[in-house]
Design goal:
Structural class: alpha+beta
Number of strands: 33
Shape: flat
């Protein structure tokens, strides 16, 4: 829609004056069918006219639109139309089409367009554009067969040495034209002259290497663009502004017509509530009356003029506190009340309150704030009416006002909370049974001398029938649990000396048994003991008829001296076979006593079995890189998993059901994946020195004991920081253990006490573990600042074995 201006003619009007009307040409050649080719040029609905009636375009004009849409391929469309009309036998219709095309090619261009209404439809009485439909072509329609070149933005000079110029959509080569390959410029000049004489416009398509003839429609578009006009005649660069919302009919546009009303439209207005509250407040205070609210009185000033200013009114209405609380600004703080009068302020004070002359002289020399009663001097009066006015009343009132003005006051809000409500509600200890409660059996260690040897470690067999203990005298003792009878004793200190080449034969130093671990597999009847630099493998001789052959097969490689395959591990550990003359405890036992000793570089401080009973790990804190060694008992082989030492390793243990290895240094616990040979996680304990470690049977939780009196619980799935830190002991922790069947956990300390906890771990990951202390077991004496050094749970019963520095072993049962 062109903009109409006064006094000036637009370019479109000048073109209309210079060029003849295309409608007259159409009427001259096809006067009978001129109404058949009318077209509604509106952008709204192409199928409706101005009066709402349907307007249909003839088949001939639709074919002409197809001719416009296929740019540069008019010859193909003509052949297709001729073939269709020959098949149908419609010769008259073909002649009519040719006349229409001839009219379009010969006639000059004239465009007419009209303004549109608010609904988007053309207004009545406007002229429609002729013969040129809306330009709605796309690049995909130009190559329907897919025979064009589809190489994209690839440089064409890459194909100079080939016989083709690219590939089409079907993957076939697009051949080069012969004229370009021969380079005949004379033929091209002749062809250009012929095209100019015939009125053709031919351009060269370099991508497809062919000449393309421009149609009249394309030439018309080029001409309009060169003249600075829009490519399509119906485009209006300056449309009239239509105000959709502020017009006469704001619903014409249809915007937001399908939206639901917001929730705020169905809720009471907060602003109206505030206005109502303000009016009620003014009505209560007397600023307005009901006549003002009902409209009988327009202005309250007229009502207040008739009021008597001298009329009595209430000085205190009783709502002063409410007004203070409702007012804006800082919160009102009431002044502190004055102290009530004492016996000295009485008009008949007791005799002890009446000062003497010496006291009066002393009070006069003192400052007022240091006097016992301030400015007041107690006196006796015969009766109350004899009491005169207090001469210091004005001064004291003034000083109180100064105190209230100068001294800052702060409102202290005290929380009235019941202290018992802050304590978590824990179940009763009786509801959490069974757990060990009383000392039942004492295992007395035989010794020579004045003091009993320190019991360093204890371990119970998987069936719960036997108990092994290690003492500072270098002897491992085998006990019967139910009777407390000593069955066997093996001196491992001599074994360690005989294996160690650095040890002098005349050296009488006794090497203590630091750690004893029973094989967790019930079919493997063997022990591990750490003595000096050696980890000694012992056959217990307690196997039955079915387990004797299995135990013998397991220990066969150990008896032969092992078979370390890797050179690095061979430097760190050596397997030595040891002969033993001990008699087995069971009649089915084939061997008993120490069978093999694994000699390392430094003293072994800790060793632990794998849950399957074929692998075990030894820890030597001072050995450096080979401080942690993994041994395979059935094959007699050893491995060194780490090439570098990350701190001094204190203890290590295996994961119960995953190929993980937990290595505890002094302050951290590192988790390693043995198959992938990578570190999975590093747990930050926050302790100064880790002394013990144990993994929950589920494998998702870990407890760590430290020498700074802390027992730390880690949730491996939750975080690398402690889940809970328990600090119940008074001295260093020596051992921490989980029970493998019951939800029990215990910790032993140098304070001579053993704390038993109920530790329930739920399968639901959303519930935290329940950790409740249920019992404190005492019975060991503290000797040389050492208390309970080790503990071990019974595998099938809620019983607990403890080993103390006083040389005694106790069994606590649930009685």
């Amino acid at each position: 829609m062109a903009r109409k201006t006064k006094g000036k003619k637009s370019k479109k009007e000048e073109v209309e004056e210079e060029t003849p009307d295309l409608e007259s040409v159409d009427q001259g050649e096809n006067s009978d069918d001129s109404s058949q080719y009318s077209y509604d040029g509106s952008d709204g609905d192409d199928s409706q006219g101005d009066d709402g009636s349907d307007v249909y375009v003839s088949d001939a004009y639709e074919d002409d639109e197809d001719d416009f849409e296929d740019q540069g391929s008019s010859d193909e469309d003509e052949e297709l139309l001729e073939k269709q009309h020959e098949d149908d036998g419609s010769v008259d219709e073909m002649n009519q089409m040719e006349d229409l095309e001839q009219t379009y090619e010969s006639a000059p261009r004239k465009w007419k367009s009209g303004k549109r209404s608010a609904t988007g439809n053309s207004r009545k009485g406007t002229a429609e554009s002729q013969l040129m439909h809306t330009d709605d072509l796309s690049s995909d329609d130009e190559d329907e067969d897919g025979t064009g070149n589809r190489i994209g933005k690839v440089p064409l000079h890459w194909y100079d040495d080939y016989d083709h110029i690219g590939y089409d959509a079907h993957g076939k080569k697009v051949a080069k034209s012969a004229s370009k390959s021969e380079g005949d410029r004379v033929d091209q000049a002749i062809a250009n002259a012929d095209n100019q004489s015939t009125g053709k416009f031919v351009v060269h398509d370099a991508l497809n290497d062919k000449s393309v003839e421009l149609t009249q429609r394309q030439l018309e578009i080029i001409r309009r663009i060169q003249n600075g006009a829009y490519a399509h005649p119906e485009h209006d660069g300056n449309p009239d502004y239509i105000d959709y919302f502020s017009g006469v009919n704001p619903e014409v546009s249809g915007l937001n017509s399908n939206r639901y009303l917001p929730k705020s439209k169905f809720q009471p207005s907060k602003w109206e509530k505030m206005q109502v509250d303000s009016l009620l407040r003014k009505l209560e205070q007397g600023y307005i009356t009901m006549d003002y609210l009902t409209g009988k009185v327009r202005d309250m000033n007229d009502v207040n003029k008739n009021k008597d200013p001298n009329a009595p009114f209430l000085l205190w209405t009783g709502a002063e506190e409410d007004e203070l609380n409702m007012r804006k600004g800082p919160q009102h703080i009431a002044a502190p009340k004055a102290a009530p009068p004492g016996h000295a302020e009485s008009y008949i004070p007791p005799d002890e309150y009446i000062p003497t002359e010496e006291e009066l002289k002393q009070w006069e020399e003192m400052e007022v704030k240091d006097r016992p009663h301030g400015l007041l001097v107690p006196k006796k009066f015969p009766n109350l009416r004899s009491v005169g006015a207090y001469k210091h009343s004005v001064r004291e009132a003034f000083e109180r006002c100064l105190d209230l003005y100068l001294c800052p006051r702060v409102m202290k809000r005290r929380l009235n909370i019941d202290p018992e409500s802050l304590v978590p509600k824990l179940p009763k200890a009786s509801d959490l049974r069974p757990f060990p409660t009383a000392k039942c059996i004492e295992y007395k260690t035989p010794y020579d001398g004045d003091e009993a040897p320190v019991i360093r470690c204890v371990s119970c067999s998987p069936n719960g029938q036997f108990l092994a203990s290690g003492a500072s005298d270098g002897i491992v003792r085998l006990w019967e649990v139910e009777t407390g009878r000593l069955l066997r004793s093996w001196d491992l200190s001599q074994v360690a000396k005989s294996v160690d080449p650095d040890c002098d034969e005349n050296d009488d130093t006794i090497k203590p048994v630091v750690t004893v671990e029973w094989n967790p597999n019930a079919a493997h009847h063997c022990l591990l003991a750490a003595v000096g630099k050696c980890a000694v493998i012992l056959a217990t001789g307690t196997e039955g008829a079915h387990d004797a052959a299995i135990t013998e097969a397991l220990l066969s490689e150990a008896k032969s001296g092992g078979n370390v395959k890797t050179e690095k591990a061979a430097k760190a550990v050596k397997w030595h076979s040891v002969k033993s003359d001990s008699k087995p405890v069971s009649s089915f036992g084939l061997s008993s006593g120490p069978l093999c000793a694994l000699l390392t570089r430094n003293e072994v401080a800790s060793l632990r079995w794998h849950v399957k009973g074929d692998y075990f790990v030894t820890v030597s804190p001072k050995a450096g890189a080979p401080s942690v060694l993994i041994h395979h008992l059935s094959k007699g082989n050893s491995q060194q998993p780490f090439s570098k030492a990350k701190g001094e390793a204190q203890t290590a243990c295996f994961h119960p059901n995953k190929p993980f290895l937990f290595v505890a240094t002094q302050q951290h616990v590192r988790v390693y994946h043995l198959v992938k040979q990578t570190m999975v996680k590093r747990l930050i304990s926050g302790c100064r020195w880790i002394s013990s470690m144990d993994v929950h049977p589920s494998g998702d939780h870990l407890i760590v004991g430290s020498l700074d009196r802390r027992m730390i619980w880690f949730d491996l799935d939750l975080s690398h920081t402690p889940f809970k830190t328990l600090k119940y002991h008074e001295r260093a922790l020596r051992s921490t253990k989980f029970h493998h069947r019951y939800p029990l956990m215990a910790s032993a300390s140098d304070d001579g006490a053993v704390h038993v906890f109920h530790s329930m771990v739920y399968s639901d990951l959303m519930r935290n573990p329940l950790i409740i202390p249920v019992k404190i077991l005492r019975g060991h004496n503290i000797r040389k600042k050492l208390g309970v050094l080790n503990l071990s749970f019974h595998p099938t019963q809620p019983w607990l074995f403890t080993a103390g520095a006083d040389g005694r072993i106790f069994l606590y049962q649930d009685i």
